[in-house]
Amino acid sequence: MNAAVTKLSGAERAPDTKPSVLSVEELEISVRTSEGPRVLVQDLSFDLARGETLAIAGESGSGKSLTSLAIMGLLPPPAVHVSGGRIRLGEADLLSLSERRMRALRGARVAMIFQEPMTSLNPVLTIGRQLIEAIEAHETLSRREVRARAIEALRAVRMSQPEARLKQYPHELSGGMRQRVMIAMAIALRPDVLIADEPTTALDVTVQREVLELLRDLQRDLGTAVILITHDMGVVAEMADRVVVMQAGRMVEQGPVQEIFAAPKEPYTRALLAAVPRMGRGEGAGAPSTAVPVARVEGLRVRFDIRGGILNRPIHAVHAVAGVSFEIRAGETFSLVGESGCGKSTIAKALTGLVPFEGLLEVAGRKLESGQRPEKAFRRGVQMIFQDPMASLDPRMRVGDLVAEPLVIHGIGSAHEQRAEVETLFERVGLERDQLDRYPHEFSGGQRQRICIARALALRPRLIIADESVSALDVSVQARVLELLKTLKAEFGIAYLFISHDMAVVENVSDRVAVMRLGQIVEMGTRAQLFGDPRHPYTRQLIAAVPVPDPTRVLPPFSRPQGEVPSPVLRRGTEPQIEALADIGGGHMVASFE
Amino acid sequence: MAAYVFRRLIVSVLILLGVSFITFFLLYALPADPVRQIAGRSATAQTVENIRQQLGLDQPLLVQYWRYLTGLVQGDLGRSYLQRTDVGTLIAARLPASLLLMAGAIGCELVLGLTMGVIAALKRGTATDQSLMIASFVGVSAPQFVVGLLLLYVFAVQLGWFPIGGYGTWAHLVLPSLTLGIMGSGWYSRMMRSSMVDVLRADYIRTARAKGLTRRRVILRHALPNAILPVIAMIGIDIGIFMGGIVVVESVFGWPGIGQLAWQAIQRVDIPIIMGVTLVSACAIVLGNLLADLVTPLIDPRIKLR
């Protein structure tokens, strides 16, 4: 079947027969385990034409990253190895090359950029050194020439003041800037093939937009063929010419991007596309505005001191949350969206009494004021579900005990009643009773998040804070967990404070939404108001930056405001200027802007 | 930076004050009476009393401590009861030998420990790795007097490569440094191995390989500087461990340092010398830690001293 698909796509490209720069034939990757070899990727074939962008899309465990490492010859030795098939780069058969000859190609003819710009650059070496050594590894040039090439590469990725950047260390740059440096390193030698493994997954949405545009422009200018590995169908739709869909180590489908999106042949592709959250799919008018508030936040401020000077006294302060007020009504999903560092998670921490704050908080009729430590009863009213389900479950405790723990701490019911309650909760979140005595590592990511949800429900809270709770999950799992949250909301009469960076997910689940920037709310309203009629430029910018899973869409022009991004760090004593929110009708609140 | 050093120095002075206080009261709480040691067994009660008055040991302890502190501030460490010399002079005469020994030991630790650790990490899971780790385990657990005597027997007595004891030439330095440093090399090799194993898994190592760098360059340029960071912090702590070690090593090799001085003073309850050596050691530990903290930002640009 695969051969047929390959032929088909070859035939379709026939009119402009571009030469293939990279071809993968019946690739098989295995890992040696104590129980013998296990196949991780099998029977994968595709061709990459000059100047083309091929997206390899799939969920975690589909083998897409392994494939890219196999092409680079960087599979983690000695256990994981290519056990069959061929990879050709032009005339060279990559799998039969010696390490020495492979090294000569690596970085020069095939280059790669990785998912985590924060950890992919060496923290103790300057940008310049890392960039220059990439060039020197392949070309014999004078120091001056190498430096000129490095500066040219930084300029190509649109970094300002490239000469000064050479002397900077990675930690002095933001995530987006670091990813630019990675791209600069990868394109400095004008490779034939650039492999981008989830290049924007760790970035904020507006930064993602910039990096994607940069990649597209570079590809156009340099004619590099790009393999884009991603789980994000929005990114696929915007970037790819052709798509390979992978699942559990096998290729499911391959074809031009329009075809894959318009008429997916395989059920898996259809299911994957259906699970992708899309803007404009949100439904329901939300809770009536007359409903009683279950949570109220008034004039919330959270400040973290930065110490310095001879006496190590606080000199500066990070104003993580600067005067935020909102209320959440019974049965409502209220979302906070914004980019990293905007203070959305700090609000969650304040509401659960985990950071000192100023202002007034009220949950389920219990007040908490500045400087007060929350009493148990207050904590009982609000529970939290975190982003990483594995990290938020103690690996040495049985999952049944983990879910029962809140009941034990609050002294609710006898041991027998607690057990019965945990069993009920387990069934409610879609797990089996007989899984109670297992340990967290025996569950999948989605199941673990269900366990966290059961734990949050145990105390029957009035408010559940879901802080990026579905961000780490694959789309299909994400869709099911969101569905579960929705059912539970109706059943238990809880309200959600939903915190996310993902505009599409927020648009799908929320009744009301607040957009945050620099510790303040810039716009707040019902889902329809905010997404249908965004007023604040920042809200508009966020919405425009979201990749849309529709290859036929013409990209709206995107412009990021120039100049310095304002900082939430101020000298101690200076207070941030708080923009007042004005009601422009029907509870749609917008901060003033010029 | 200057502010940081200043603040650290102030804290250091407080630490030294605390050390002097605790040591002083502990020493005088001992049942051993220094005056008896000075006067000898046949001394009359009257003589003993006279000496006690002469040394000011009849005063309340707090008064004695206050006197000691006032002397200390003026740079006076007091006089030895038995050697009739200023403690400061005695220590100054012997300190260079001990510092030299410590420097030798640190050198030995770094060279041996780091090399073993790096090789073990690169050959992880192989027989080489296992033998190196067993060797480091033996190094950590072997008592120093045993190691010292063993080295003496093999390299000085049997092979005759190095002198049996004493002080003066570089050859004299080798065996004592090795003895003192071998335990630390064991620790360092284990630390270096685990740190290196972690670093080799890091994303930036993968990036370096993806650039097409040679293995040698990836290891030396990218892995090593990152892996060595936790080890540097350890060196500061190590100086404290050395202070215990030099007492043993200096007696085994007849090395004329402050360790021997302290050992003799302890046997004879010569409290001013014990106090002096303790304070000098405490100084060395505090300064060693400060130095280690000052070196770290030179390697790791993310660390800012404030």
From TrEMBL, chain B:
Q: Which UniProt keywords apply?
A: Cell membrane, Membrane, Transmembrane, Transmembrane helix, Transport
**Which positions, given as ranges, span the membrane?**
9-30, 99-122, 134-155, 167-188, 227-253, 273-296
Q: Which gene encodes it?
A: gsiC_2
Protein name in UniProt: Glutathione transport system permease protein GsiC
An example of a Gene Ontology BP annotation on this entry? transmembrane transport
Gene3D superfamilies on file: MetI-like
What is the top-level taxon of the source organism?
Bacteria
- Give residue ranges for domain ABC transmembrane type-1: 95-296
Q: Into which family does the record put it?
A: Belongs to the binding-protein-dependent transport system permease family.
Which lineage do the record's taxonomy fields give for this organism? Bacteria, Pseudomonadati, Pseudomonadota, Alphaproteobacteria, Rhodobacterales
| A Gene Ontology cellular-component term | plasma membrane
**Where in the cell is the protein located?**
Cell membrane
